[in-house]
Amino acid sequence: MERPTSSSSSDDDDDRQNLIEQNDRKLPTPRSTTTTFHIADDDIDDSNHRHHQQLRRRFTSLKLNDLFNKRSFVLFAIFLPLFVLILFFTTDIKALVFSTSVSASPFGSVSDKLRESELRALYLLKQQQLGLFNLWNQTLPNPNSTSNQSNSPQIPLLEDFKSAVLRQISINKDIQQVLLSPHRSGNSTESDFRDFGDFENPSLGDRCGILDQKFAQRRTIEWKPNASKYLFAICVSGQMSNHLICLEKHMFFAALLNRVLVIPSAKVDYQYSRVLDIEHINKCLGRKVVVTFEELADAKKNHVHVDKFICYFSHPTPCYVDEERLKKLKGSGVSLSKLEPAWVEDVKKPSKRTVQDVQSKFSTSDDVIAIGDVFFADLEQDWVMQPRGPLAHKCKTLIEPSRLIMLTAQRFIQTFLGKNFIALHFRRHGFLKFCNNKQRSCFYPIPQAADCITRVAERANAPVVYLSTDAAESEIGLLQSLVVVNGKAVPLVKRPARNSAEKWDALLYRHGIEGDSQVEAMLDKTICAMSSVFIGASGSTFTEDILRLRKDWGSASLCDEYLCQGEDPNFLAENE
């Protein structure tokens, strides 16, 4: 359709004007009007009658263009702004809009919100009550204990007490927020409700500050081994985390016996060189205290013989070594002497042992000795478990991830997480039966776990959570939907599959160790250990190794805790 030209538009205007004039002159009176409503009156003046007929014709033929002639337009332009100004100064527009919006909303919406908030607040008050009762019970002496028992008053440590109090303060703040939420309008801010109480008390300081590990008060010993005497490490129980704890205890034994520690061969155990920097340990001690199996084989000209096999554990099997592991040792070129238990010791009920016990039972002049798996050994636990361990060294920790894994973890954090993030080890696979066999189960329903995570996220004020888990996607999806702080979902971030467009994992790919399950597990540990706050899985050695790294690195937080620490699952399945 073509656009009309200016000349045609002008012609149209002329036609309309002519049409109006013609209508003014020739408009007939409607028949229905003259027959039905015409009142014949012989006394009416003819001139008045004609004037009346003209007015009717004018109003009948009135068109929109008549309103917009020059005189009408000028009057309209003058009076419209005056009318708007008068309306503005005499009417409360805000109140009018607000009342309109309120009247348009459903009748029961406000009352429903109030009721929902009250129920939520009652639930939180119940949680706070249970938490305070638990704290109170921990501070009371056990009535069943005798007065001469040194550990009868079950008084919590100061840091545990402070953490529990902060948790209750956090719940109290949640209650305030819930009760205030129905009274908030879309444009209101938290500052509008200051009259209801302080939301942040400056006297509390940093609620999730760094925990003081008191490194200066460490109790240590020097590890100065005889270069020709060796302790052959053997670790059997569990996965990589168990083996790392076993290696750490072997290091303490080697220091007590003045021996060099031999790291197992990859033919018998994990390939530790992929996840650990073995030479880092020697640098930290300033001397050769650890060698690989290959280095020992070179020193012995490929004739590695364990001269004495003194077993720390006698039950359920000597040295806690099965036949399959003995075959692997022999297959790697190691010849073994007879397994001889040092004492009666069961892995299920280990006895507390001292330095003197070990030195008296395991000291020998033989070149190469082995003592078997010592993961369950209870030797000077307070000494061994202190931050940065029992050995004197110049580093933060001796057993730590390799340099490649450390750099990859840092690059991942810079890419996805940033400085302030929570790390969560959410163990699920095979954990249900394991936890339910414990005195207090550590396997929590997803909604309860989400509530615990939310409380920590609110307390830590962290925008994101790094998720290290073996959970199914169905569980992860539900968990993500329930972790909400101040009305906003807190993202749960997992390491994504390899993408060539992303360069944070390029080092692993370049060195050919990407996709290795042990490398990925150590990378997860490292990211978790670098977090602002860590939530672990009670009973998991994976979690315990992360906590060890955090203590040694000085990154442990006042808010670090096990998932739903101090709580029982709100539902518990029966055992088989």
TrEMBL record:
Entry keyword Endoplasmic reticulum: yes
GO BP annotation list: fucose metabolic process
Compositionally skewed regions (Basic and acidic residues) per UniProt: 16-27
Pathway participation: Protein modification; protein glycosylation
Gene3D superfamilies per UniProt: 3.40.50.11350
InterPro entries: GDP-Fuc_O-FucTrfase (IPR019378), OFUT2-like (IPR045130)
Subcellular location: Endoplasmic reticulum; Membrane
Organism encoding this protein: Prunus persica (Peach)
Membrane topology note: Single-pass membrane protein
Coiled coil: none
Chain intervals for the UniProt region annotation (Disordered): 1-33
Primary site of residence: endoplasmic reticulum
GO cellular component: membrane
Family statement: Belongs to the glycosyltransferase 68 family. Belongs to the glycosyltransferase GT106 family.
PANTHER family, A to Z: GDP-FUCOSE PROTEIN O-FUCOSYLTRANSFERASE 2 (PTHR13398:SF0)
Keywords carried by this UniProt record: Carbohydrate metabolism, Endoplasmic reticulum, Fucose metabolism, Glycoprotein, Glycosyltransferase, Membrane, Transferase, Transmembrane, Transmembrane helix
GO MF entries: peptide-O-fucosyltransferase activity
Positions of transmembrane segments: 73-91
Protein name: GDP-fucose protein O-fucosyltransferase 2
